């Protein structure tokens, strides 16, 4: 009987082991064993440690405290309903550092398949200490569309019972978001971006404060109102099938989208997998139509399925990528190339002088025995020729890319045509490299530059830069100069920029009129390098004023640089001013006194009629005297005779002066 019982128990054990083996690995702890610290004065139910446990079989599991030392420790394991993670919490704690300064907690996780791994968490009690949050847990509400970056969300306030400083704040969020940040020293929570980009209506911010020994965590819930509505596609994901002989430009699918926010402006993107086939598809963002790109065809034998992914955004939230699967139906087709893209490199040259074989490999599953090759028109294809049988490419015209005369890179469409007139296409990118076929050249065979005694050392006296029609590096050059005259290299130098520079003033050392000749050589940077030469005669001359050094270009006369002309002009200005002053004086005299020169005013022009002259004091007559001559208001003496006193016979009675 006993043997039967033993046999039955053995079978049960074996069966149990078999069941356990079918469920694979047990839950695995990460981060344990470790230790945490709790303040002796802590009484609230606090999260002191978050367990990190995984199950390779994705079996559901539950965790709890299997045992503690000392026994009956005031801790428990709870599962956070938001994060779905297990954590160790204090449970109605009353700690006594004197009697129990440390606890050993054995945590067990059970996946209900017989796998029950354990791990140890040590809890150290810190004598007399406690960290307390004064204003969390709590909930704060904000309007998403109007809350901008760096806006204040909440100020977390925590204190340490023993005033341990500094306190350090850290924060995590559920669900994960980049919209918030916390100041590590002040606990101030602010926005890390405009909240119009946030798509979650409620975010739990888990704030942890630590004094270096104790860490305490609590939650701030951020509730968002006026949240932006996320745009969406209404007919994706989807799957379509098209024939491989579908004509290029055909609309394959029309996407539809929706945004609950009135007036929202939506934008779209499209990607193709595999990416090398992106050129097959064209997506019009204004009509939301997906088409087969112009000039492109499907090839079932090369690729029978594509994934076209779309995204939509209203600038604040993005949906996608969401896929449209495009399956290709096999149809009898024309010839096709083994590659969708070929690359050719040619050096610029005359027509027919160079050639290149891209090794086009063309097949036709319909069994056609022959085909011909050609270029589709457009994109400078007329400048190239292709052998219809071998596919060898050459120039159809003299090709020159110097200074952008012709493009240095073109992408052409190669067409194969089978006997049934069905065609296939591929792309060939032809890169044309520059040849150093032009030497630097100078405009003149000899240049003349003058230097005088006033020019300062280090001055640029002139430039004789050449030109090089080549492009890129081949068109770049530098200059150097040489001279057989010692005076030339003593006082002058030729820069790499083809400039003539004054090393030191020749004043007192060279005679005026001394000519120093340099041979200037310009060397381009092509391979092989080409050169050009010219001569520069530097003439040392005397000048009476400090003037700008004459360059190779002819100078023009400047009036203000001529000291004699400026002096003559200044004298003329002074004389004109004097004459103007004299003229003004006589005009004023004419206005107020007339043209007469006697003691009496004679305003015969009546230009000062409104001016009241001061009355003359009547002289006392000692002896009889003749009546004073009356004032004349006009050129009356023009009407007098030679007696100068016979006015009565000419003046009308109304103008005759009354007796004095």
Radius of gyration: 52 Å
The 3D shape can be described as extended
Strands of the widest sheet, in order across it, are 2-9-8-5
Distance between the termini: 182 Å
Percentage beta strand? 35-45%
Counting DSSP E segments of at least 2 residues, the number of strands comes to: 43
Average the pLDDT over all residues and give the rounded result: 83
Subcellular location: Membrane
InterPro entries: Cadherin-like_dom, Cadherin-like_sf, Cadherin_CS, Protocadherin/Cadherin-CA
Keywords: Calcium, Glycoprotein, Membrane, Repeat, Signal, Transmembrane, Transmembrane helix
GO molecular function: calcium ion binding
Describe the 3D structure.
Pfam families: Cadherin (PF00028). It is found in: Membrane. One of its GO terms (molecular function) is calcium ion binding. This is Protocadherin-like wing polarity protein stan isoform X2. Helix content is 9%, strand content 36%. It is mainly beta. The radius of gyration is 52 Å and the shape is extended. β24 and β25 form a beta hairpin. The protein is built from three helices and 43 strands. The N terminus is likely disordered. The strands form 14 sheets. The chain has a four-stranded mixed beta sheet, with no helix packed on it. A four-stranded mixed beta sheet has the order 11-18-17-14, with no helix packed on it. It has a four-stranded mixed beta sheet with strand order 20-27-26-23, with no helix packed on it.
């Amino acid at each position: 009987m006993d043997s039967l019982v033993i046999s039955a128990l053995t079978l049960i054990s074996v069966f149990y082991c078999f069941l356990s083996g079918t469920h694979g690995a047990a839950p695995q702890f990460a981060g344990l064993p470790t230790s945490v610290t709790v303040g002796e004065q802590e009484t609230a139910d606090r999260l002191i440690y978050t367990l990190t446990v995984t199950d390779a079989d994705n079996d559901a599991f539950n965790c709890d405290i299997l045992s503690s030392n000392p026994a009956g420790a005031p801790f428990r394991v709870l599962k956070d309903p938001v994060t779905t993670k297990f954590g160790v919490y204090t449970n109605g704690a009353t700690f006594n550092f004197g009697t129990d300064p440390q606890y050993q907690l054995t945590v067990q996780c059970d996946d209900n398949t017989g796998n029950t791994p354990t791990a140890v968490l040590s809890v150290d009690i810190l004598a007399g200490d406690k960290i307390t949050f004064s204003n969390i847990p709590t909930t704060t509400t904000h309007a998403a569309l109007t809350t901008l970056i760096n806006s204040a969300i909440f100020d977390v306030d925590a204190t340490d019972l023993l005033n341990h400083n500094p306190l350090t704040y850290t924060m995590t969020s559920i669900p994960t978001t980049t919209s918030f940040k916390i100041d590590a020293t002040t606990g101030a929570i602010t926005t890390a971006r405009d909240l119009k980009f946030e798509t979650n209506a409620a975010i739990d911010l888990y704030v942890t404060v630590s004094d270096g020994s104790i860490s305490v965590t609590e939650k701030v819930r951020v509730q968002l109102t006026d949240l932006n509505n996320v745009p969406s596609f209404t007919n994706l994901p989807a799957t379509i099938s098209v024939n491989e002989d579908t004509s290029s430009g055909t609309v394959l699918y029309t996407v539809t989208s929706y945004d609950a926010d009135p007036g929202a402006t939506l934008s779209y993107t499209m990607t193709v997998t595999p990416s090398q086939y992106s050129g097959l598809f064209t997506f019009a963002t204004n009509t939301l139509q997906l088409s087969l790109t112009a000039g492109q065809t499907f090839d079932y034998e090369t690729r029978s399925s594509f994934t076209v992914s779309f995204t939509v955004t209203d600038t604040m939230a993005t949906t996608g990528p969401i896929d449209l699967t495009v399956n290709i139906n096999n149809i009898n087709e024309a010839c096709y190339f083994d590659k969708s893209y070929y690359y050719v490199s040619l050096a610029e040259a005359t027509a027919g002088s160079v050639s290149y074989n891209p090794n086009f490999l063309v097949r036709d599953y319909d069994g056609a025995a022959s085909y011909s090759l050609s270029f589709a028109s457009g994109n400078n294809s007329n400048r190239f020729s292709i052998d219809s049988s071998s596919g060898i490419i050459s120039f159809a015209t003299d090709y020159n890319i110097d200074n952008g005369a012709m493009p240095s890179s073109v992408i052409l469409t190669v067409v194969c045509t089978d006997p049934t007139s069905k065609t296939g296409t591929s792309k060939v990118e032809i890169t044309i490299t520059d040849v150093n076929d032009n030497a630097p050249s100078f405009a003149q065979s000899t240049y003349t530059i003058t230097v005088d005694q006033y020019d300062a050392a280090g001055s640029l006296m002139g430039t004789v830069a050449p030109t090089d029609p080549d492009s890129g590096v081949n068109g770049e050059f530098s200059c150097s100069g040489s001279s057989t005259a010692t005076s030339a290299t003593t006082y002058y130098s030729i820069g790499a920029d083809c400039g003539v520079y004054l090393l030191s003033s020749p004043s007192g050392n060279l005679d005026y009129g001394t000519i120093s000749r340099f041979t200037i050589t310009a060397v381009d940077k092509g391979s092989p390098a080409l050169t050009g030469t010219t001569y520069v005669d530097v003439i040392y001359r005397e000048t009476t004023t400090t003037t700008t050094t004459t360059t190779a270009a002819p100078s023009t006369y400047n009036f203000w640089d001529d000291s004699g002309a400026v002096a003559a002009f200044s004298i003329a200005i002074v004389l004109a001013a004097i004459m103007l002053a004299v003229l003004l004086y006589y005009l004023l005299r004419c206005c107020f006194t007339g043209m007469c020169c006697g003691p009496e005013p004679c305003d015969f022009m009546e230009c000062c009629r409104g001016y009241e002259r001061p009355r003359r004091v009547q002289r006392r007559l000692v002896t009889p005297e003749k009546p004073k001559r009356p004032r004349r208001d006009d050129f009356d003496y023009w009407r007098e005779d030679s007696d100068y006193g016979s006015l009565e016979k000419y003046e009308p009675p109304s103008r005759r002066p009354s007796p004095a």
